Amino acid sequence: MEEALALARQGVGRASPNPAVGAVLVRDGEVVGRGFHTWAGVKHAEVLALEEAGGRARGADLYVTLEPCSHQGRTPPCTDAVIAAGVARVIVAMTDPNPVVGGEGLRRIETAGIPVEIASEHAVEAEALNAAYVFAMRNRRPLVTLKSAVTLDGKIAAPEDNSGWITSTQARAHVQQVRHVHDAILTGIGTLLGDDPLLTDRTGLERSRPLLRIVADSTLRIPLDSRMVMSAADDVLIATTSASSPERRRQLESRGVKVLVADGPGGRADLRQVIDYLARERYHSLMIEAGSKLNWAALEAGVVDKIFFYYAPKILGGMQSLPVVGGAGRRRRKDAILFRDLRLHQITADEFAVDAWVVK
């Protein structure tokens, strides 16, 4: 199962909206087949392992990180292939949270007379491997992570010159790895006008589809010559309101930019409607990389599920330096937004990151 999990990791970022899955076939103590799923490869991990094993699959034990599918998608049900191959036993790390499967795959295998075992000791690792997929299947919407780079006193910007970086080269490389496992990324128009970012996945690693770059821009102030618009290839979405110019929308759309009209409170683009759009389009994860104001709006709207904050060994201080979360804030300590399951990640000898789940 550990080898199957290692194989599954090779599909991370390459399988979405499907889960990353690894499979290993063992017969008489020898591995006779291996497979992992990628979207481009179409075939699922179990089928690839069975094909590699050929006739040696009969009587073998199949170790797979996720319950085999039992429904017709782009490929026939994996359960049919597993049963037809005549494997002796199926061991899975976890059942599939997809309601279309929901244990039916294992039931079909057992009905065919093949014993099934759940390797529960690997369940936590298997679920973490597909955290966004599992969350999306259970909640019917993408997992939303608020990411930021902050000083030790929680600041993200100085009142005057903001040239340079808060965190180190190593931390910024780590951010790219985090971007790679996300389906979409969101920023605000303030950040775009100030930094003119590309917001691309710069790992160079293969993806199943481009990282969807989203800008919350209520009045369509985004410049047509911004790097994001100039590089758009059906991978840029602007969330705006009906107050924006129809002509401006047409200009953006003619440049390959998608425009979503999502009227929200206070004349601003509604982040919840953006989340609904992503859910409809089968984007399972969204990372927010924005400024102080949008960070607060996302938290206050209740759309944030996790935070991932990188801390640099610096202090800006001052009342004018922007905090990681601005806006109106909470007026009383007892109303503070709470977090659970906090974890620390050592980035360099002097930098660390914190990730935690929002208490809903």
Could you list some keywords that capture this structure?
nine-stranded mixed sheet; 16 strands; 360 residues; alpha/beta; five-stranded mixed sheet
Task: Please sum up the structure shown.
This protein has 360 residues and is an alpha/beta fold. It is built from 12 helices and 16 strands.
Structural notes for this entry:
The chain is of the alpha/beta class. It contains twelve helices and 16 strands. The protein has helices at residues 2-9, 45-53, 78-85, 104-111, 123-129, 131-139, 169-180, 189-195, 227-230, 246-253, 271-280, 292-301; strands at residues 22-27, 30-36, 61-64, 89-92, 116-118, 143-151, 155-157, 184-188, 212-216, 236-240, 257-261, 285-288, 306-312, 322-323, 339-346, 352-358. A nine-stranded mixed beta sheet has the order 11-10-9-8-12-6-13-16-15. Strands 2-1-3-4-5 form a five-stranded mixed beta sheet. Strands 7-14 form a two-stranded antiparallel ribbon. Strand 3, helix 3 (78-85) and strand 4 (89-92) form a beta-alpha-beta unit. The longest helix has 12 residues, at 169-180. The two termini are 34 Å apart. The mean pLDDT is 96.
